[in-house]
Amino acid sequence: MPKALHFGGGNIGRGFIGKILADAGYEVAFADINTAVIDRLNRDHTYRVHVVGDGVDEYQTVNHVRGVNSGDAAVMTAEIAAADLVTTAVGPTVLEIIAPQLAQTLAARYRAGGAPLNIIACENMVRGSSYLKEKVLVAAGEDAALIDANTGFVDCAVDRIVPPVTGGSDDPLAVTVEVFSEWIVDSTQFKGALPAIAGMLPTDKLMAFIERKLFTLNTGHAALAYLGKLAGKATVGAAMQDSAIRAAAEAVMKESGAVLIRRYNFDPATHRAYIEKILKRFANPYLHDDVDRVGRQPLRKLGAQERFIKPLNGMLEYSLPHDATVRAIAAALHYHNPDDPQAVEMQYYRHAHGIAATLAKYSDFTDAAVVAEIEAAYQALA
Fold it and tell me: Where does the chain show beta strands of DSSP type E?
């Protein structure tokens, strides 16, 4: 049985990537620091995933799983040495944290004569594996060339809504996911043969899929969260039930979709159907997704390569309408959450320096005319 090492034993790891790998016949070791998750995985070697939506409400069993302590250097060296595939779902900020460990364990594998290895960072970011590669090679020092020659850092686009489990479950492995899932990988970045995994789609045109997902699901999701938060909505579902908020988010998705149609020659009718599918997923009554979960880390979400600014730059490049996107960015700048360090930092900096300076610092966006539009939208939303 092939072995997969997956960094991140959280809901996305268990409910999405780990499940696909286990269903494809891999033994999946989840590397995490959460002892409750690790202990339960090693006790049961199985867990159930609650799959909901589109008339489906069922539990699916995932087998051949175990847990390992990612903080144990000797254990992780052994796991890397034995792995046939490595994946992550730890969040973009954690990739840099695990990079030195990966550098050390990969070097040990290759110095011992181990075969080349592919690593797929399944994160909610653009080209997360390339980012991880950069951090690993910096940490590797004199072993950088050895690791670079033997490791495929494979970029991907991942799409599945996996909200936090509610209802007070005492099972640390409990996870609920929507029916829809999409895992698209860059076929040009693998070392050796591509693994045959049902549910993983290889393509040599990954950027089109990355931006389709980023500009549609991520942009629309964030717009709903920030506009919903301003309107006092607790969940994305509640925001979707407000016709004005839904219309505003849909307008953002149409504007970003116009960029995709120009850039990648997408068929307009097909992309319109894709937007409708995404909106239907947002409205899934089984998925209770808090606006604060979707809106967290606003500074990252306002980044130059992220879900608002990147499509906005495309709209300006192609001279396309952008009013709805400007309003969504203004709503993001309003986001208050005392439990989110980035939200606190954003509000402190905006209050001290203003919106133009905030966008210049965190979004690398300095178009004076559009900044003035964002400032006006911010005041209107206030």
Answer: 3-7, 27-32, 46-53, 56-63, 65-69, 85-88, 117-121, 151-153, 156-159, 175-178, 182-186, 201-203
State the DSSP code for 81: H
> Cβ contacts of residue 41 below 8 Å, gap of 6+?
9, 30, 47, 65, 66, 67, 173
Quote the pTM value: 0.83
Architecture of domain 3-204: 3-Layer(aba) Sandwich (3.40)
Q: Is the pLDDT of residue 166 over 80?
A: no
Q: Is 256 left (phi over 0), alpha (psi -120 to 50) or beta?
A: alpha
Calpha distance 311→257 (Å, rounded) = 9
Burial of 179 (0-12, 13-18, 19+ CB in 10 A): middle
- Look at residue 169 and tell me whether its pLDDT is greater than 80: no
For 207-381, the fitting CATH number among 3.90.340.10, 1.10.1040.10, 2.170.150.40, 1.20.81.30 is 1.10.1040.10
Nearest to 251 by CA among 327, 176, 168: 327
Burial class, 129, CB count within 10 angstroms (exposed 0-12 / middle 13-18 / buried 19+): buried
pLDDT tens per residue across span 191-202? 999 999 999 999
Residue 369: which pLDDT band, with cuts at 50, 70 and 90? very high
As a whole number of angstroms, the distance between CA 370 and CA 14 comes to: 42
Other CB atoms within a 10 A radius of the CB of residue 194 amount to 13
Q: Which has the minimum average pLDDT: 78-82, 165-169, 297-301?
A: 165-169
- The answer to whether 67 and 9 are in contact (CB under 8 A) is yes
CA 69-185-209 angle, to 5 degrees, is 125
In the prediction, which pLDDT does 295 show?
97
More confident residue, 168 or 182: 182
**Domain residue extents for the chain:** 3-204, 207-381
**DSSP H/E element including 252:** helix 243-264
Q: Measure the CA–CA gap between 255 and 323, rounded to whole angstroms.
A: 9
The β-bridge partners of 63 are: 46
- N-to-C CA span, the chain: 58
Alpha-carbon Rg for the chain in angstroms: 21
Mean pLDDT over 217-241 rounds to: 97
Structure-token pair, residue 108: 């040990």
